[in-house]
């Protein structure tokens, strides 16, 4: 997984080194040296912080829980990235996720660098009181390296506004009298969070898909019909026809993306399958997403796993194994659960022609190549799932100004920002033979390289 990000960054750097219209003032040996510096800067994090949080549990046992904060790069602004609460967290994963944040912020012109945190635990195995202590200890252990102008965490898998509220409160008590609202984003609205932050990533995920197959396709149809680009053919096949969608993961990102798809007035699409760590629910006529969202809200995030439960809430669906969501005969697959879900051993079973990466790195390098060779369009993580960090940026700004936007203003600002990025990368994507991921990486790497060069960091 980590090598995937590195490989694409390196490919982008190699292409830019050859392209003398990029940074034309840097020539010859100096150019080679500058690009060697870029490789080392972008392929390694600035800092990896690790601590063992000492937690007395309610049953009086004491545990030491490993926790990380990785600060990848801050050339564009303070480090920024979520804190994951999950049992599979490991250092390599956190480093890779931090580097994706650097690239994501560069791609969308968000003035933040890349960071990420992780705590190795299954939050379901801890009481609320214990989780509160874990969140506070995380801030105590890492308080020297965090702060509104240094490193700003946010929620990630397994964490949410409750944890961010706890963490901000702890930060505030450790640094009395200092600005604190911008120290964490993804907080509850009452604690200075932004309206729309919770829905931002899922909404952005659906927006990137809708924009590509609807708005952009309509506006730029002549561009797409003129080229013999294989991805243009795939996109044109999506024009003005009913579409089926399946969504892996029904948490913060997946459930909102599914709801957006269900409610979309732009597209004739139906969500035929959703899944979580227990099940896939399937209905070829489309699932009742609002009722399923309501069910998960009352049941600790879990989808129904039994026919009785489905009957009780009036949802018609077949219960299938959790992996089946990946292999259904659908037009679109939205991946909103974990990394590495589509890989070399299962990629041949995937039938969707468009894949949208709501999760970070859910498609491995081998699978990505296989799918791209077949003309499958993959809307990559750094493009599709940036809604969260974009609205986090709005939250950070609102916290500084103590002026708050309406929900409508937040979503309009979000869509404007994502539209600007899509309008930058899509014409290039349909004009050359590279997958969209490669286009996005080149764009990010160009921005980072230029900034690092102008900051005098490439020697
Ligand atoms: P979340 O609320 O914790 O939801 C994760 C979902 O994935 C849950 O439905 C979970 O099911 C499901 N899941 C877990 N393990 C699974 C498995 N093995 N197979 C199928 N489903 C599985 O997390 P989230 O915030 O939506 O984040 C999802 C992904 O999006 C992560 O990769 C995260 O890094 C990425 N992301 C999130 C944001 C954000 O703002 N939240 C921003 C950018 C990227 P259970 O409920 O049964 O555990």
UniProtKB/TrEMBL annotation:
It comes from the Bacteria. Belongs to the Glu/Leu/Phe/Val dehydrogenases family. NAD(+) binds at residues 201, 252. This is Glutamate dehydrogenase. Keywords: NAD, Nucleotide-binding, Oxidoreductase. Residues 194-456 form the Glutamate/phenylalanine/leucine/valine/L-tryptophan dehydrogenase C-terminal domain. The active site is at residue 116. Substrate binds at residues 80, 104, 392. Pfam families: ELFV_dehydrog, ELFV_dehydrog_N. GO terms for biological process: L-glutamate catabolic process. SMART domains: ELFV_dehydrog. It comes from Rossellomorea aquimaris.
């Amino acid at each position: 997984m980590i090598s995937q990000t590195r490989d694409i960054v390196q490919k982008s750097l190699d292409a830019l080194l050859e392209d003398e219209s990029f940074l034309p003032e840097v020539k010859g040996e100096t150019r080679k040296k500058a690009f060697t510096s870029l490789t080392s800067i972008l392929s390694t994090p600035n800092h990896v912080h690790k601590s063992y949080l000492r937690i007395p549990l309610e049953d009086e046992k004491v545990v030491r829980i490993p926790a990380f904060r990785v600060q990848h790069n801050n050339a564009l602004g303070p480090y920024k990235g979520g804190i994951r609460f999950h049992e599979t967290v490991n250092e390599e994963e956190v480093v890779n996720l931090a580097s994706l944040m650097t690239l994501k912020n560069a791609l969308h012109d968000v003035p933040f660098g890349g960071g990420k945190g992780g705590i190795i635990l299954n939050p379901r195995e801890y009481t609320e009181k214990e989780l509160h202590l874990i969140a506070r200890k995380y801030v105590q252990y890492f308080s020297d390296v965090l702060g509104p102008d240094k490193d700003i965490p946010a929620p990630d898998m397994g964490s949410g506004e409750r944890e961010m509220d706890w963490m901000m409160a702890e930060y505030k008590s450790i640094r009395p009298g200092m600005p604190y609202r911008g120290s964490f984003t993804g907080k509850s609205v009452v604690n200075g969070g932004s309206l729309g932050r919770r829905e931002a990533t899922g909404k952005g995920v659906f927006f990137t898909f809708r924009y590509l197959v609807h708005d952009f396709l309509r506006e730029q149809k002549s561009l797409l019909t003129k080229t013999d680009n294989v991805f243009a053919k795939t996109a044109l096949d999506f024009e003005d026809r009913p579409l089926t969608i399946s969504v892996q993961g029904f948490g913060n990102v997946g459930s909102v993306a599914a709801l957006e798809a269900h409610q979309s007035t732009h597209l004739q699409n139906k969500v035929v399958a959703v899944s979580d760590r227990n099940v896939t629910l399937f209905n070829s006529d489309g699932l009742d997403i609002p009722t399923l969202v309501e069910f998960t809200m009352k049941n600790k995030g879990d989808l129904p796993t039994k026919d009785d439960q489905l009957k009780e809430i009036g949802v018609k669906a077949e219960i299938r194994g959790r992996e089946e969501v990946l292999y259904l005969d659908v037009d679109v697959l939205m991946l909103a659960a974990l990394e590495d879900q589509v890989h070399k051993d299962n990629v041949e079973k995937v039938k969707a022609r468009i894949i949208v990466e709501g999760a970070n790195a859910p498609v491995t390098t081998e699978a990505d190549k296989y799918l791209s060779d077949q003309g499958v369009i993959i809307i990559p993580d750094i493009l599709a799932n940036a809604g969260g960090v974009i609205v986090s940026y709005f939250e950070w700004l609102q916290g500084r100004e103590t002026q708050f936007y309406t929900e409508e203003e937040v979503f309009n600002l979000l869509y404007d920002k994502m539209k600007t990025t899509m309008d930058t990368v899509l014409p290039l994507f349909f004009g050359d033979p590279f997958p969209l991921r490669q286009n996005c990486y080149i764009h990010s790497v160009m921005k980072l390289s230029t900034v690092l060069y102008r900051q005098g960091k490439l020697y």
